[in-house]
Amino acid sequence: MVTITIDGIEYEAREGQTVLDVAKENNIPIPSLCHHEALKPWGACRMCVVELNGKIMASCTLPVAKDQNIKTKSELVKTVRKVVLNLLLARCPHSKTIQQLARLYGITKTTLKADEGRDNCILCNVCTRVCAQLGSSAIATVKRGSEKEIGTPFGEKPPDCIGCLSCARNCPTETIKFEETDAGRIIWNKSFEMAECSICKAKTVLTKEQVVFFAKKSGLPEEYFAKCDECARKETAETFAQLVINPGAHIMKAWGFTFGKLEAKAITASPVLPQKFERS
Amino acid sequence: MPITCLQCEDAACVKACQYNALTRNEKTGAIELNEKKCVKCSACLGACPFGNVLLENNSGRFVKCDLCLGEPMCAKFCPSKTLEYK
Amino acid sequence: MRFSNTKDLGTRIESAKAARQKVKRRLLVCAGTGCIANGSLEIADALQKELDARGVKLNVELSLKKTGCHGFCEHGPLVTFHPEEIFYQRVNAKDAAEIVEKTVLKGEVIDRLLYTDPTTKQKVTKYFDIPFYAKQQRVVLANCGQIDPAAIDDYFAVGGYSALKKVLEEKNPEGVISAVEEAGLRGRGGGGFTTGKKWRICRGQTSDKKYLICNGDEGDPGAFMDRSIMEGDPHAVLEGMMIGAYAIGANEGVIYVRHEYPLAVKHLEKAIADARACGILGENILGSNFSFDVSISRGGGAFVCGEETALLNSVMGETGEPRPRPPYPAVEGLWGKPTIINNVETLANVPTIINKGAKWFNGLGFKNSHGTKVFSLVGKVRNTGLVEVPMGATLRDIIFGIGGGILNDRPFKAVQTGGPSGGCIPASALDLPIDYETLTENGSMMGSGGMIVMDDRTCMVDVAKYFIKFLMGESCGKCVPCREGLRQMSYILENITEGKGKPEDIERIRELSVGILNGSLCALGQTAVNPVLSTLKYFENEYHAHIKDHKCPGGVCKPLITYGITDKCTGCTVCARACPVNCISGEKKKLHLIDQKKCTKCGACFSSCRFDAIEVK
Fold first, then answer.
1. Distance from CA of B73 to the nearest CA of A (A)
2. In Å, how far is A105's CA from the nearest CA of chain B?
3. Which residue of A has its CA nearest to B16?
4. Among A95, A210, C243, C316, which is disulfide-ready with A206 (CB 3.0 to 4.6 Å)?
5. Partner-chain contact C519 A56, CB within 8 Å
6. How many residue pairs bridge chain A and chain B with CB atoms within 8 Å of each other?
7. What is the model's pLDDT at position A212?
8. Do A148 and C483 touch (CB under 8 A)?
């Protein structure tokens, strides 16, 4: 444990935490756009800047250290955040997220040259990072500098996209568009059909590509994933019913799952999964 | 027969999640879904062999039983006390 | 010839030195990139042919060699003849016969090929009598242009690898670090961080693997000191790397060279192969416990990849984008292992520090900046090229001493140091000593040593716009202040140079600058506003002239200038003929006139007039 000071108040922090972590735990407001709890700190939006010894640092990437004296409300911090918001508002004047945040800092209209006709992407890279962490890396940034954008390989339908929609669902400015029906989805211009339940043939909530992807990643058969939750539960229920009738039997026939110790009271079901399923 | 999350010891959903969003609450023993960390990729939903991770259609949220933080409401409110939590 | 111990290496160094001393006459042809482009390889071939034709054999006493860059590329191709130190410039393959006939065989000097001092208009015969060289102190560049970079024996002959020998024989890693620290060597790539301190941090890390990377991603436009060192003295870079690796405990090295430097890659590859064959690189170097090998990684030429964390990403095959520090690469670098990244020039200094001693190096320089620094002197100066001076030399020494003053005797206006993200320093600061701190205090920086000299016909707003546009294009685009801020900054500057600037633009620029300077993720953004802030600091009146008076004092911004003909006009008609849109009229021997409606402000008349009769308003 280390003690750090934020805006004059001391806080206990654990080694390895970032200043932003500590601030969030203690309800100290620090705005951020590219930060996502599930992802490694990125440090790109520069909204979460704080002041440390007169220097501006991004709190999301700043590890806590003994006797740090952090200021989150200094004039310099405010100025930098305002510039960032002014810039973002110029980039995407119609983004609700940016407008709201800018209003908190007293900015209602950018003083800079506003881009009309551009989408609301702020290049926080949450989409690409989420995608990469899942293991598909279907989208990435393309080009450099002020021309940079999020794109698919060669601007075509992304071959590695599995249609999980994580990119769109995590976009802070809701820029990534998709269409969704019970039968399928369209994202990044690529159409996806929902996989059919291997038992009842109803549409599941996973795309065919997701099923293939998860199967490949885990080493389990595709049927394992292509199952609607009703059928899965039904199957489980049947399994348990049989277990009660005939305890000790090896069931879960289809994929060779075994239950170790099976007692009527405490059922601890642990399907043994191949190692490949481990987090990368 | 209704089936709810078994809180598997070596849970497939936890292994499938690439974002550390599913963790076991050591007090209750339940596997809880941290919504802040969930990116809604459906990996856990696909991985659960029992169909116990659900996608709430209206909200787009993923839900699973977390034993209501140690006090399952289903058991608490079961009028016939058929459901018990021990 | 594989040396199994340091003694064998020592014997070889001594014999190579002795062999070099036996050579009585040495004909050296510069084969740096600049001279090659001007046909120096053909000259070398022609010289060989002429020697053959006259039955002159190259032997112990006479040698013909292709060397690395002399740094005076403007006057290339260069051929030098030693021991007389005769310096021939702008040589052509056709001159080969004469050079062999007169100079090699008879020792005569060919006047026509000599350098003319632009100040005194005198011909200069000897290399070190030329003011460009006479006022330099060459430490890092000492071997460039003197030895054949493709021959390891040439390096041995100038005492090469004796520093490695000394280190392996006499010093432990701690001793090496202390020596480099005591010498006060600081990073030559821009940051100016103390090299020894950086090494010590890395040495203190416990890890199964450590890396040492040589940063040869020289991205500053116009800068080519690192290229020249890699091309002209590759073994010095390797030796520096080995000593660094020994000090920090690394056993793998990477030289990151930009793709635009094929010759540097070729020479480095040869040097690595030769060093491996000698047992200087590889497992158990010279029979010691120290193992180290080097590979080359070629960059795509993105400016931002000179930033160390972007460089690491590039080496690992990721997008060349910087990441926040900490963790610093010395703690967590390539493949997550402790990594030291040193600039080419920094590493090339290391063998000299070991050979001549930390005290000697520390004695050179000024305040907290020690040793020498290579600058790439370009722009409106008479002599352009690579110059090496001790730290603490003044800008005046370089520009007016070595550089020979401003081209066409025009007044000096400013010098931009430190590459695109350096600042513009005005005439009032010409006598300040050049060291890391002084430059920074004056709104510029050492950078990698770019030095662009500007005369009175330079528009400072235009200069700021140029650099901001360059940096905007080279920004990786990861963080908002740099990506968006530089774009907005360039819009504003563009408007000002087009006469559409508003008074509030200056305040806006200052505001943006605070955000970009403080808020950017890496040094590219943090220093990107230097050109703007420094020109605002020293030349704010020029901004006002553009905005309020719609005038460009430098006569550069086309929308704000008009060309006119003064009564100096002799009616020679040259301008009328040069004008591509035929907007100049006038009879022969009478005053000419420019039709302002048709004029496209291309400046053709201005540059064609021999009577200074065209004025810019």
1. 19
2. 25
3. A277
4. A210
5. yes
6. 115
7. 94
8. yes
Cα separation, C599 vs C286, in Å, equals 72
Chain B residues with CB inside 8 Å of A136's CB? none
pLDDT exceeds 90 at position C242: yes
* A 14-43 residues with CB < 8 A to B: 36-39
pLDDT at residue A43 is higher than 90 = yes
Predicted local distance difference test score (pLDDT) of residue A264 = 30
Q: Give a yes or no: residue A114 inside a domain.
A: no
Q: Quick one: CA torsion of C328, C333, C337, C339, rounded to 10 degrees?
A: -80
Task: Indicate yes or no: CB of A205 within 8 angstroms of CB of B41.
Answer: no
| A88: contact with C, CB 8 A cutoff | yes
pLDDT tier at A227, thresholds 50, 70, 90: confident
Which residues on A lie below 8 Å from C475 (Cβ)? 144-146
Per the structure, the complete domain to which residue A256 belongs is given by 229-277
A260 — pLDDT class (breaks 50, 70, 90): very low
For chain C, the average pLDDT equals 93
A79 CB within 8 Å of a chain C CB: yes
Residue C58 pLDDT > 90: no
| Residues in chain A within 8 Å Cβ distance of B8 | 268-271
Confidence of residue A255 (pLDDT cuts 50, 70, 90): very low
Domains of chain C in start order, with CATH, are: 19-127 (3.40.30.10), 160-361 (3.40.50.11540), 366-455 (3.10.20.600), 460-547 (1.20.1440.230), 562-616 (3.30.70.20)
Query: Of C330, C66, C88, C51, nearest to C211 (Cα)?
Result: C330
The shortest C-alpha distance from A109 to chain B (Å) reads 31
pLDDT at C493 over 70: yes
C514 touches chain A (CB under 8 A): yes
Chains meeting A at 3+ CB pairs closer than 8 A?
A: B, C
* pLDDT surpasses 90 at C280: yes
What is the number of domains present in chain A? 2
Structural tokens at position C518:
């403080």
Q: Report the percentage of chain B scoring pLDDT > 70.
A: 94
Domains and CATH numbers, chain B: 12-77 (3.30.70.20)
Distance between A25 CA and the closest CA of chain C, angstroms: 22
Nearest to A241 among B1, B42, B45 (CB): B1
CA distance A50 to A280: 32
At A49, which amino acid appears?
Answer: V
How many CB atoms lie under 10 A from the CB of residue C559? Answer: 12
Q: Does A228 touch chain B (CB under 8 A)?
A: yes
Residue A182 contacts B where some CB pair is shorter than 8 Å:
no
Tell me the nearest-neighbour CA distance from A212 into chain C, angstroms: 27
Q: Looking at residue A244, what is its pLDDT? A: 65
Give the gap in angstroms from C-alpha A233 to the nearest C-alpha of chain B.
5
Average pLDDT score over residue span C83-89: 91
Reduced 3-state DSSP string for chain A: CEEEEECCEEEEECCCCEHHHHHHHCCCCCCCCCCCCCCCCCCCCCCCEEEECCEEEECCCCECCCCCEEECCCHHHHHHHHHHHHHHHHHCCCCHHHHHHHHHCCCCCCCCCCCCCCCCCCCCCHHHHHHHHHCCCCCEEECCHHHCEEECHHHCCCCCCCCCCHHHHCCCCCCCCEEECCCEEEECCEEEEEEECCCCCCEEEEEHHHHHHHHHHHCCCHHHHCCCHHHHHHHHHHHHHHHHHCCCCCCCHHHCCCCCCCCCCCCCCCCCCCHHHCCC
**Cβ neighbours of A90 in C, within 8 Å:** 484, 488
Under the banding of pLDDT at 50, 70 and 90, the label for residue B2 is: low
A112 → chain C, closest CA residue: C488
Percent of chain C with pLDDT over 90: 80
